[in-house]
Specification:
Elements: E1 2-8, E2 11-20, H1 22-38, E3 41-52, H2 54-69, E4 73-77, H3 81-89, H4 93-96
Parallel strand pairs: 2-3, 3-4
Antiparallel strand pairs: 1-2
């Protein structure tokens, strides 16, 4: 998994690319938690996430909760198809509170 973190004034932009699975969860946590601690506001782009499993989903929820506990604004943006599929499968669209578009089932 590739992680790009760019801080500008009060906003930190994070771009994730690759597989967000159990194999990358520890590395992601070790990179994202200090970034949340250091910023006032964070935006995490999920456009490059090619695969996500339960560990990846748990990490997204944990980071969102950690930011809220520290009164920091954190938004997930540009959800990839893999992310949208997982959020839809687990019926978690309302949990994250970020704008996203879920496609309707095809007949």
């Amino acid at each position: 998994m590739n992680i790009d973190i760019v801080s500008q004034a009060d906003l930190t932009r994070v771009t994730l690319e690759g597989e967000m699975t159990i194999y990358a969860a520890a590395e992601l946590k070790d990179s994202l938690f200090p970034a949340v601690e250091a910023c006032k506001e964070m935006e995490i782009s999920l456009a490059g996430v090619s695969e996500i499993d339960g560990s990846g989903l748990q990490l997204l929820a944990l980071i969102k909760r950690e930011a809220a506990a520290k009164s920091k604004k954190l938004e997930f943006v540009a959800h990839s198809p893999a992310i949208l599929d997982m959020i839809d499968l687990c019926n978690l669209a309302g949990i994250f509170g970020d704008p996203l578009v879920l496609s309707s089932p095809q007949s």
